[in-house]
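User: I've been trying to design a sequence by hand for this structure and keep getting stuck. Would you show me what you'd pick, starting by listing the structure so we're on the same page?

Assistant: Good idea, let's start from the same input. This is the structure you sent:
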């Protein structure tokens, strides 16, 4: 259905409130108690598509960050699991490429106490890709934070080019 709305948007643009309603539907799929294992993967795919299309064109960057942040720091993010961190990282990399305020936003999410290890790993992966594995950037700063999980530091250190 999302693909159809994206195509229709080119003919008859949707409103910001309609985009927010679509986000709410996608977000609700993360916390569905009867969700099947593939449901979260599909919901994440839809969230990524939505954030890069309708949200990016019909909502301001701050609103996009707020809405995506709700998903990243919500209770359902804890259950995303390791298999989906690459998909989250890809979505975050895309946001980094179009929103100049995204790096600081991701640093704040990384430091939030409710942010799961999987989301922190996804943030680190997104920064590594965004910065081309160069030392001295955001990824390097993440590993130096006192509360940086060992799994995140272990991911970052060998990837930084010296």
């Amino acid at each position: 259905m999302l693909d159809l709305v994206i195509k229709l948007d080119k003919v008859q643009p949707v409103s910001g409130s309609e985009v927010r309603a679509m986000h709410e539907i996608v977000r609700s799929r993360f916390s569905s108690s009867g969700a099947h294992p593939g449901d979260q993967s599909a919901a994440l795919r839809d969230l990524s598509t939505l954030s890069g299309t309708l949200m990016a064109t019909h909502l301001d960057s701050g609103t996009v960050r707020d809405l995506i942040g709700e998903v990243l720091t919500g209770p359902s993010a804890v259950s995303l699991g390791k298999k989906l961190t690459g998909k989250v990282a890809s979505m975050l990399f895309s946001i980094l490429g179009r929103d100049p305020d995204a790096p600081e936003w991701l640093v704040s999410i990384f430091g939030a106490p409710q942010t799961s290890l999987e989301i922190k790993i996804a943030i680190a992966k997104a920064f590594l890709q965004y910065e081309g594995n160069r030392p001295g950037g955001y990824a390097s700063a993440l590993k130096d934070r006192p509360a940086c999980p060992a799994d995140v530091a272990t991911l970052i250190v060998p990837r930084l080019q010296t």
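That's my pick for every position. To get oriented when you compare it with your attempt: The first helix runs from residue 2 to 9. The chain has a mean pLDDT of 91.
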